[in-house]
Amino acid sequence: MKQLCLLFLIFFLKISAQTEIKGIIFSDNNSPVNRANIILLNTQNEIETFGFSDKAGSFSVSTDKVGKFILQITSLNFHPKNIEINIDYKGRKIDVGKIGISKLKEHEIKEVVITRQNPIKIKKDTVEYTADKFATGTEMNVEDLLKKLPGVKVDNEGKIKVDDKEVERVMIENDDLFERGYQTLTQNMPSKSLEKVQVLKNYSKNKLLKNIENSESIAINLTLKEEAKGKWFGNILLASTSYKENMRQGKLNIMNFTKRKKLYFLYNQNNLGLNEMKGVEYLINPSSDKDVENVGGNLQTLSIVNLHRKNLQFEDNRTNFNNDKLGSFSYIYNFQNNWKIKMVSIFNEIENRNYITSVYKYNFQNITFTNIENNTWKQNNRNIVGKLELSKDFTKSSNLLFYNKTSSLKEKNDNDFVFNDQFNEQYGENKLFATESKLVYTKKIDSSKAIVAVAKHLFQNRPYNFYDENNIFQFITGNSDVQKINQQIHSKMSFAGGKISYLKKIDEDKNLEIQFGNEYKKENLSSEIKLFNLQDQQYLFDNSEFINSLNLEQNKLYAQLKYNSKIKKWKYDFGLLTEFISSKNNKQFQKGLFVSPNFSLGYELGRNQNINLFGSRKFSETRLNNLFQNYIYQGNRSFHKSNLNFEMLPDINLGLSYNIGDELSKSFRINIHYLKNEKMIANNTFINPNYNFNQSILVKNNHSFFSNLEARKYLKFLKSRFSLLGNIMISSYQNSINNQPLIKTKFSNYKIGFEMKSGWLKKINYELGYDWTFNKMISEINMNDYTDHKVFFNLYYNFTDNFRWESKLEYYQFGNTSQKTTQFLDVKIDYILKDYKMNLFLKGNNLLNSNTIQRYSVTNVSESVYTQRLLPLHVVFGINKNF
After folding, report:
1. What is the residue-wise DSSP string for 210-257?
2. Nearest to 39 by CA among 120, 135, 159
3. What is the DSSP string of 183-197?
4. pTM of the model
5. 168, 484, 571, 836: which is deepest, by most CB within 10 A?
6. DSSP letter string, 638-675
7. What are the tens digits of pLDDT across the range 407-462?
8. First-to-last C-alpha distance (Å) of the chain
9. Phi, psi dihedral angles at 231 (to 5 degrees)
10. pLDDT digits (tens, 9 = 90+) for 226-266
């Protein structure tokens, strides 16, 4: 750990060695020029870095390269200007002083664009890339192109980041088809149809709130070439293994975009372990959206029982034994009378199987035993979702939006369990019907003020019905004939809420937002257990401890204030939420006033250097699944109930972040976060070799500490970016065993590692990384520690412009398991037929044929080893054709 800190210190000191070029841009009348484009070009006319001037005309760009450069300055309605820069050693501070640029004469005025050699335009909050200038002809989709844009990164899941901040939306000609599921678009849309890629900073999805609301969102807008508009295009992918493995993949994407109309149809099917749901997951399991156009947070679908277990912190393409089908249709039409209609519909069927062997060792006081489970989890899901959105611009200062989403889920589970050599089955059905409607009205009072009113209604109905064949109730009731359990659970939720927000931009650096709202929520939960023998004859017993009938009503009246300001190099954010909450839990009535403040304070130490301090105190409410007073059987020999009434759980958050440098040369970042849970839900567990009874209890004053560090540097002699990474997590918690006094436990996790990534677009590129994770658990009754290792090495080789090789090697070593190491080798060969817009590929997965992966986990009374079956070696041949 000391060595790691030393390395971070060295990186921190070396960041200041990069060369900084600064100056001030003035016009003919000696006025500063704001938002002038500043681009540093090398001798090959390649962009090294770029930026823009501020309100005072000042600018600063940095590089760790040496040699001769051209500093290019352009601005709308001004003549461009080039300045030669010579950097003979690193760490120089070059001040070019005042630079005058001449305004275009009236007859010459036109938008200044960057020429063929400099395909980037910076204007206000938009960075625009000319697509063809970054394309090499080998790109099969938009994502391939985005990876080549400076300042843009794409991770393995297709999530896009700009300036290390995640992009929220990717639009086509300013229309958003997929919202947060934009991977469907970027991973399938052919890139040859693109003319521009626009990165929109401080993005507001409601155009009337642009430059009024305080938004730090980032979006990407894709503009099309004229010849691509109104034409049908897309791609088709077909892939298969040999008849022996019988694994396959089929994918079809068809799209047509004009200014008024946009259509997108997709169909995916595979049993290769690929998760095709990422692009539409936001419709099925939406995240809580807390923007000004939404009301009601924390309204996720209530899930009391989960009869399926997927992979254990491992990638789907290793463990996902699947057979998935997905169809989706998206449509947008912009009417001439300023109406817009947007429709999205999806249908999917998912079959997922997982094979897990678990060994649990318990040791508490005089209770010591070991359980061995061999489980096969099989689940079939059918999802149908329809979404309709209507919007109308009445004038240039008001609009109305109506939204409805209706969804249906049918889930079937058919699991085979072997518990200590005893076989039992579990099968059940889970259904969900949900409908959500929302109405949003926006009125822009003037250029600095707006009012937004929103109303929302949500209804969810979720019945469960499942059977479990095992002997646990023989021990509970004392009757040896009881072999089957039938449990029926029914949950409902109704929500209605409204909110009105007033937004004011006081000046360019000050924003005010005031909200008033009311939310009403009603939830119902009922459950009952029935017991049967092997002949399906019901056994009557005293089931009073296994019946629930719970009704929870809650009304929340609230007011919220948000204020942010920037004064010179200081940035202030302050928020205050006041809630009056009344709740009725069956016949118990509670009410109270809760005040939740938050703040953020930032200081800009330099052009690429800032420090931020933030903190909050907030209240979280106990949900229905922590309030039922009698036991519900949750499957897998586990029961749960609660000893709680409705509670508001306060916590305190404090954080500190420090950043220096930029993505293109060197950077150092550290984030520190402290969390104190003044009240927290924990467990009281009754341990038995054959089953577990768990009770929710309330504990006080739990603490957690998180920190991550990252130092990056471009190593010129290796033409690679080197990163040092570190993460720290220290958490304390309390729990009880068999009604004994609370046990205090501290768990710590220290992760250190490095990554190297090549930075040249030549024949060979690579990625290399190594992580060490040190885990330690200390409690009042025992302690344990173990170390995990992860190594990866990815190699990319371009034989020609058309012929590419890609290999990925992974190595894992998990502590405290009998499996010493696990290795994976994947290889993919691509041959691109540019004239036919076709890609032929041969892909070998898990070529070392690793059969299983083991993970170790520990609590203060037990330790567990999980062994999960992996998808076997398979070789896939495929064709991807753009049209």
Report:
1. TTTS----EEEEEEE-GGGTT-EEEEEEEEE--TTT--EEEEEEEEEE
2. 120
3. HHHHTTS-GGGEEEE
4. 0.83
5. 484
6. EEEEE---S-EEEEEEEEEEEEEE-TTSEEEEEEEEEE
7. 999 999 999 999 999 999 999 999 999 999 999 999 999 999 999 999 999 999 99
8. 54
9. -105, 145
10. 999 999 999 999 999 988 889 999 999 999 999 899 999 99
Q: Tokens 């088709």 belong to which residue?
A: 236
Sequence-distant (≥ 6) Cβ neighbours of residue 377 within 8 angstroms: 308, 309, 310, 352, 353, 354, 355, 356, 413, 415
Let me know: does 493 contact 523? Beta carbons within 8 Å.
Answer: yes
pLDDT at 506 over 70: yes
d(CA 486, CA 579): 42
The residue-averaged pLDDT of 821-850 equals 93
Where do the DSSP E strands lie in 420-547? 422-446, 449-469, 484-507, 510-532, 538-539
Tokens of 531: 């017991």
3-state secondary structure of 445: strand
Residues 6+ apart with CB under 8 A from 341: 331, 332, 333, 335, 388, 389, 390
- CB 389 within 8 Å of CB 341: yes
Within 10 angstroms of residue 511's Cβ, the number of other Cβ atoms is 21
Residue 505 CB contacts under 8 Å (≥ 6 apart), including other chains: 211, 212, 448, 449, 511
What are the beta bridge partners of residue 502?
451, 514
Per-residue pLDDT tens for 515-532?
Answer: 999 999 999 999 999 999
Nearest to 428 by CA among 471, 374, 472, 486: 486
* C-beta of residue 295 within 8 angstroms of C-beta of residue 497: yes
The gap from C-alpha 189 to its chain's centroid, in whole angstroms, comes to 22
Residue 23: partners with Cβ closer than 8 Å, 6 or more residues away: 58, 59, 95, 96, 97, 98, 99
Query: How large is the greatest C-alpha to C-alpha distance in the chain, in angstroms?
Result: 98
Cα–Cα distance for residue pair 854/821, rounded to 1 Å? 9
What 3-state DSSP class applies to 13?
Answer: helix
Whole-number Cα distances in Å, 814 to 229, 694, 818, 855, 866: 52, 29, 9, 6, 11
d(CA 815, CA 810): 17
Under 8 Å CB-to-CB from 800, ≥6 apart: which residues?
Answer: none
Q: Quickly list DSSP for 346-389.
A: EEEEEEEEEEEEEEEEEEETTEEEEEEEEEEEEEEEEEEEEEEE
Report helix, strand and coil shares of the chain as percent, to nearest 5.
5, 65, 30
Q: Sorting pLDDT into bands at 50, 70 and 90, what band is 3? A: very low
DSSP-derived letter for residue 75 is -
Give the model confidence (pLDDT) of 118-150 as tens digits.
578 877 788 889 988 888 777 888 998 998 887
Q: How far apart are CA 756 and CA 759, in angstroms?
A: 10
**What's residue 695's pLDDT?**
94
CA atoms within 13 A of residue 652's CA, in its CB half-sphere: 7
Which phi and psi (to 5°) does residue 282 adopt?
-65, -25
Tokens (6 digits) for 853: 């992966």
Q: Which has the closest alpha carbon to 556: 511, 513, 522?
A: 522
- Could you give all domains of the chain from N- to C-terminal order, each with its CATH number? 1-122 (2.60.40.10), 721-883 (2.40.160)
Question: What is the rounded average pLDDT for all residues in the chain?
Answer: 88
153 has a pLDDT exceeding 90 = no
Which residue is associated with the tokens 């200044």? 112
Q: Containing H/E element for 59? A: strand 58-63
DSSP state of 473: H
Name the strand (E) or helix (H) holding 4. helix 2-15
DSSP string, 395-431: ETTEEEEEEEEEEEEEEEEEEEEEETTEEEEEEEEEE
